[in-house]
Here is the input.
Amino acid sequence: MAGRVLIIEDDSKIRMLLKEYLEGNDFQVAVLSDGNKAIESINSESPDIVILDIMLPGKNGLEVLKEIRQKSSIPVVMLTAKGEDADRIVGLELGADDYLPKPFNPRELLARMRAVMRRTFKDKEVEPDSDNLIIAGGITLNRAKQTARLGEEEIELSSTEYKILEVLMTNPSVILSRDQIMNYARGRDFMAFDRSIDVHISKLRSKLEKDPGGPKRIKTIWGSGYMFMD
Here is the structure.
C-alpha cells in the first residue's frame, strides 16, 4: 500500500476520478464532500496526506486548513481555481505543503503527493517509525508494518482485526458505534445491522485479554458500541 489519502472535494466527478486513480496506484482512499468533518475523519482514518479543495460549500478549504494545522502537521495539498493567486498564497501561509490549480492531470497530483510525502518522511527520519507506532494498554501497533505486539509477543491478526484494533486504540476512552468501527475497517462494504463486528471483537479479546469474558481493554458499552481502555 502506497499510503492513506483523505480527499476533501465537493465536485463529485473530480472526487470519484481521484479516488479511482489513486486506488489504482495502491493508495487507500477516503473521501469527503465538505470540510465539516475533516478533523473527525483525520482522527478516524489516520491518512498520510490530505487533498483539500479551497472552494468548498459552507466552511471553505482555507478554514479547514487552519483547523487542521491547529491539530496536526499532516501533509496537505490544496486544489485551487486557476488564477487565484491570493488563495494559493494564503494557503501556503496557513501551512499547505503544496498546491495544484484546476484543471489538472491526476498524474501531476500523484507526483506532487509523492514529493510532499518523501519530504515529510525524510524530515522524520531522526525518529524512525515514531509516528507509525500506537502504544496503549500494553499493546503496540506498528502502522507501517500493520503488526501488533502484546508486551514483547507479536500477535497474529487478520487485516480486519488489525483495522478494528487500530481505530479503537487511536480513540481511547471514546465510545465507537459498530457502524463507525466497521466503516473504518471495511469501508462501505457492510450491510446495515451487520453483527460481524461482534465476532471480530470476540476474536480480538481472545488474543489480547487474560480473561476474554471480563475484558479490561475492549469494553462493550451496551446499546452504544465499544470502547478501548488504556
About this structure: The chain has two domains: 3-123, 130-228. Residues 123-128, 188-193 have pLDDT under 50 and may be disordered. The two ends are 29 Å apart (CA to CA).
